[in-house]
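Entry 14. Structure prediction run on the chain below.
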Amino acid sequence: MRTTICNSRRDFLKAAGAIVVGFSWCVPGVLAQQASPARLPGSLNDNRMLDGWLRINANGTVTIFTGKCELGQGITTALAQIASDELDVAYERIEMVWADTARTPNEGMTAGSQSVENSGTALRYACAEARQILLGLAAAKLGTTADRLTVVDGTVSGGTGKTTYAELAREANLKREATAQVKPKPSSQYKMIGKSVQRRDIPSKVTGGQSYVQDMRLPGMVFGRVVRPPSYRAQLVSFDESAIKAMPGVVAVVRDGSFLGVAAEREEQAIKAAQALRASAKWNETPDLPPSAPGLFEHLQKMRSQDSVVNQKIPTAPVGGKVTTYDATFTRPYQAHASMGPSCAVAQVRDGKYQVWTHSQGVFPLRRELNKVLGVPEANITCTHVEGAGCYGHNGADDVALDAILVARATGGRPVKLQWMRDDEFSWEPYGSPMVMKMRARLEESGGIVDWRHEVWSHPHSTRPVSNPGGNLLAGWHIAKAVAPAPSPNIPQPAGGADRNAVPPYEFPSQQIVLHYITDVPIRVSALRTLGAYANVFAAECFMDELAIAAGADPVEFRLRHMKDPRARAVIETCAQKAGWNAGQKSDGSHGRGFAYSRYKNLACYVAVAADVEVDRRTGKVRVTKAVSAVDAGLIINPDGLIAQIEGGIIQSASWTLKEHVGFNRQRITTRSWADYPILTFPEVPAVEVHLINRPDERSLGTGEGSQGPAVAAIANAVFHATGARLRDLPFTAKAVKVALSDAPSRAA
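Output returned:
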């Protein structure tokens, strides 16, 4: 994989928008707080005490506290780089503590590609202010002024001699509110920021250390399993409790309403006991799921919805001349997180205190949700983040934490490691919502788009803990004193949820974006990476391609024709140049190239992708052979980390696009194993090139979910270029492609 970094200090769009605080949309009154002149940068606004962010230790090390979770995205590495530069302390002597309700700031969810934007921004200001406090003390001690001091790895020199942060820390008062009046260092003084340093989380994963919660072992620990209902609204009638209790190694059998769990001395004993428990359980079931595809999408459009105009631009002058109208409809099915390691948690309940080790992406929201379900004071609940094997989005991490606690209450104080089985994960995790996107545009004779309409039908894209007044933990629905779910609000623009990236980044004289928001959720859905952006960018960028073809224009030139943002133009042009884009390039009928662009959430990173595909016309199989991407994420903290995020997004998008969808009938989820849910395999992974445009004097922009949308559209556009078949329904399985090819002209285009 080849990588280049282009540096530019031009002052493009300095006022690119206010810093967005993660998931503040669900907190009443937060908009008024954001408008207040006293607002502090990033997550510092809601966590104002300096000592909540850092501690100078007696041995000269510095401990940094962040509420964001390490999910394999390398955030603890990037944040350590920021702290190292702002404090002038060696990177190796920065210790990281993350996402622990007993120790760290509350930064809500680690989601939405906002960790560097919010936690990184807060740390820059907190560390800059702490450094100034320490230098003020050093100046008094050494008989000089702060501007005459130098700091190397926490040792301060000047005046009458030297001192260290460790010595000064005894007098430094960091137990004070931050002011954010001390400016962080300019980019010219960075030593660690902008460098690719070794990731902190990788070595233990490679060597087999206890990186994941699935690997945890505590003294006296027992092993748990849970038995779910066979379908969504099933109710437990009976089960053979005495037979299960008599099985070897069984420590406890737990029933609470329709919740069933078991704990045993050994893991294989817990699995056998759960199998026996499942076999003996009797349930009442109701067939009330929606129709599967293709009927699903007609059903979705007929469901009761909350309709709103998300964005609208009224033309200032009538359009003259001939205008042609174009329409297209695009769909996305239910898709799963399909985490590589099934969700797991370790819990211990002792002396009225509840401790859970969890791979939840929001330990503070999880604690509040546990308080809601259990009726236990939050002060008695501690949630500590431990990485999960394959953790992103709202998968089963929060649910399994409650499962573990419900079983741990029956083990007499012994800790319980409770892990889901594979069919638990596929059947019960929250999926990405199905979506329908209807596009309409009018094209004038000169080749310009004069009117644009984008309509979206979708369920919610976040039912995470504490995102609504109802209950969001699975076992909470099944226990006798149930906490039922309640309708979830859509995340408002500019970030958006179901309508994320539905507002076009291009300049059109007239446009209207309409959301049909369906709060009734017959199948469980929540936050899958990018929320609605993956499908909305798919629809919008494929439609841009169709309009370019209709206008007789090159797809890249057509996009630039409608784009004013100079940073967006630079990304589009860089991607096209690095990919060797050739306007008018012909296809041999099997090989094609496609292009797409988006700015994630219309306020985060700018990403363009050019994809090469190979289509086997006999089998219908599509293979993505290569993808080239250009990215502008503002100030780059760790280039390798950013590149890995973009690469991973492209590969994941290719898997979603070509293979992934959840199967179900009118009663049950039928996707229960990897055989039912194929994903991209290692031999199918495309070659990926990522080219970074570094802007050191701009703020850092979130990148974690920036490439999935452009990647799907680039793949779809490449298939059209190769075959003349326009694919509008995800995923592009071999069967679907064969049908499309039979309807498309066999031509080189």
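The radius of gyration is 27 Å.
Filed with the rest of this week's runs.
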